[in-house]
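WP5 quarterly update. Target: DUF4129 domain-containing protein. Source organism: Clavibacter lycopersici. Length: 121 aa.
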Amino acid sequence: MTAALLLGAVGRAAAVPLDPDADGARRLLLDELAKPEYEAARPNALDLAAQAVGDWIAGLLGGAGGGLADLAPVVIGVLVLAVVVVAFLVFGAPRRDRRRAAARGDGLFGSDDRRSAEELR
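Structure tokens (predicted):
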């Protein structure tokens, strides 16, 4: 019996269109926006700071379009910098290696090697 009453109430609510006046619409809007799920979706300080930095970078690049093509130079620059850092970490500083080779007595292409061809075979 309660299911029939519920279905009848839902049917009547769907049949009547909501057409409030200006004050009623404003009140309904304020009541809706006062719900906690809208407050939870409000950006926090970190979101606002990230948005400000993004806007600043877009302004520097002159990105009036706001598309991904405007960020291409930044992405390419970051990738090049990452490659340089990784190469430095993997291979080390060239001068430091040169000093180390000089300390070991290694010449360029083994020019300090005094072994004969017979000894190398």
